[in-house]
Each structure stands twice: as structure tokens, then as C-alpha cells.
Amino acid sequence: MAQARRKIKVGIIGLGLMGRELASNTARWCHLLDLDFEPEITAICDANPATFDWFERNFDTIQLKTSDYRDLLNNDAVEVIYCAVPHNLHAQFYIDIIRAGKHLLGEKPFGIDLAANEQILAEVAAHPEVVVACSSEFPFLPAAQRILKYIDEGRFGRIIEVWSGLLHSSDMDPNKKINWKRMIELNGEAGCMNDLGLHALHIPLRVGWKPQNVRAMLSKIVTERPNAQGEPVPCLTWDNATLACTVASGEQHFPMYVQTYRIAPGEMNTWTMRVLGAEFSVEYSTKFPKTLRTMEYRSGQEQAWKVTDLGYETAYPTISGGIFEFGFSDSLLQMWAAFHDQVVNGRGGMKQPFYCATPEETHLHHHVLRAALESHKREAVVPVAYAAETG
Q: Which of 41, 99, 168, 388 is the Cys-Cys partner for 59 at CB 3.0 to 4.6 Å?
């Protein structure tokens, strides 16, 4: 008889797009192999009760439906919470969740600004028994896992430069109605960097490629959008950001370019990374999801890019054959598995070594964003503050 899986009782706060995505991946848990734990949705919360219907129709394990997130905090039917709310609510919600002893997978940027992020991290430090992580799925792509392996192996020799970015076109239409992500008071002054920055910085920060300084070029492309009544209102958030950074890693210093675009013509939702080295280079974009480009070079040899067709290579084994294609929902499933693995087994006991983005990494990310905002205001290269603090 197969061993029973440990059931992990999950509450979801914020039942929009990402709340449904994470719930859907809970429903397809059977896609994963060799795990002795399994999440089940036991509680849902959203300010709009109309969002309950989809969850009620698809999950018969739900015991609690509410529009007040505090109802989840002292409820034994909830062990873990996934929270996806506007950025201005992160500090209040995340702190209350952690203080209640619930494990938390929160959304980026983990606080509307650096001050809010530091309030959250203080609560994390006060409750080491609570697992707290930030949602960031792209490093679970097979290509991203390959790139991480190449970095760990030191394949690149002297690094020449790095490009990392998240480019999409959700705001291409100037007549798209304004929503909270285009409002500074809800999204934050950092705009697209708050929303997309960790996607571009997760792997660099994880491997120790911390920007020491930044020259930021920020763009407001659509300055007005229609409100719910169709009337034009100011759209004040930054649409696109390009950050030119200097990275110090060991004895190496190299430039790193970070791009976060909400208005990227020709893109849908493209995560991309390129690392150029004197001995080895790699390039990947989700625009060509199976294609990984690599180039080895030795003195006197020709330069020749090699193209590898990637299959279904995953951190956690699945029922899919290695020859099949990997997609966005698969990366979310892998991330969701990594989070629950850490809840059950601790980071040191996880069934594979790659863990979700940490609160500490979101803290570094906020330092970069603060320097980027100052850089754009001054039209100058600005040191990132943690460089002075941590060397």
C-alpha cells in the first residue's frame, strides 16, 4: 500500500489571476512524483465574494470563505497561506500572517518600498519557526536550472557581461483601463521594477552577483489611462526600466544590465538571461522556450554557438517524459513544490537543493530599486547602499 501523503492545509488570500494559478497547481499535484506531502485548499479570502465561485466549483476541501483575511489567521484549517494583494498591503498582511504562525508564500516585491520590506523582515527574524518565501517561478525553468548549474561549475571563466530581464506587453494598449499596478499609492514609486524586478534579479542575487552601483533609465510611456468610467486619469508609474549595474563577485567585476518592461513591443511575457564569458557563454529566452544557446571558447578556436533543444528537465520529478515541452504552469508547480518541501523538511532537508526566493533576497532587491530611483532623479551612477554595509 502506498504511503499516505501529509496534507498541508492551504489558505489563499487574493483570488485573482495568480491565486487561481496556484490553486490550479494544487489540483494537479498528481503530476509530481515521489513526494510525501500534498497541499489542499482549505480557506479562501478576497474582498470580492464573486471570486469565490471558481474555487467552490473546483475544490471541495474548502472549509472557510471570507472577505476578511484575519479570519484565516487563527483558524486551525489553515497551516500555509499564499498571499497576493496590492503592494501597499504587503507589510500589514504579511506581518499579521507571520505573527499568527502561518507559513507564507508572498508575492513580489515583499513590501511597497524598502521601509515596508524591512518591517516584514523584522517579523521574519522574530519568528524563525515560520517558513517565509517570495513567489518567483522563472528560476525553475529547465534552462534557468541549467544556467544555475553552469554558474555553480564556474564554466564561464572571466565573466564579460550579464543581461537579465522580464519583458512583456500587458500595457501596450494605451486604452487599457487603469488598475492598481499603474497607481503609485498602491504599486509604489518603483512602478514596473516593483512588479517585475525580482524576476530579473532572483538568479543574480542567488549566485552572489549583487549590483554595487546602478545607472537607471526609467520611462513613462503612457501618461494617462481611462478609469472605470472611461475618463482619462494620470498614469504615474514607470512603464519600463533599464538598469546598468556594476557587479563585484570575488575578484571579478563586470557589467550587468537589468530590464523590466511592461511595454515591450513584440513580447508577451518573456524572461531572458544572457551570460557572456571568456571561456563559456549562455543565452536563453522564453520566446524560444526549448532553445538554449551555449558557446565554449578556447584560445585559437572558432567561435561557434551550440543550440540545445531542452525537454522536460525538472527539479522535482514528474510524470512527463523528458522529450516533452515545459511551460509556465509547470514552473509554478515546481515552485509550489519547493515551498511545501521547505515547510515539511526545512531548507536543509529538501528533496532537491533549489529553494524559493528568500525574504533576504527581496531585501537586496529593494536596495537596488531604491538606488535606481535615485539614479534616475540625479541622472547619475548611484552606489547601492548595501555595498557600504556588507562590502
A: 41
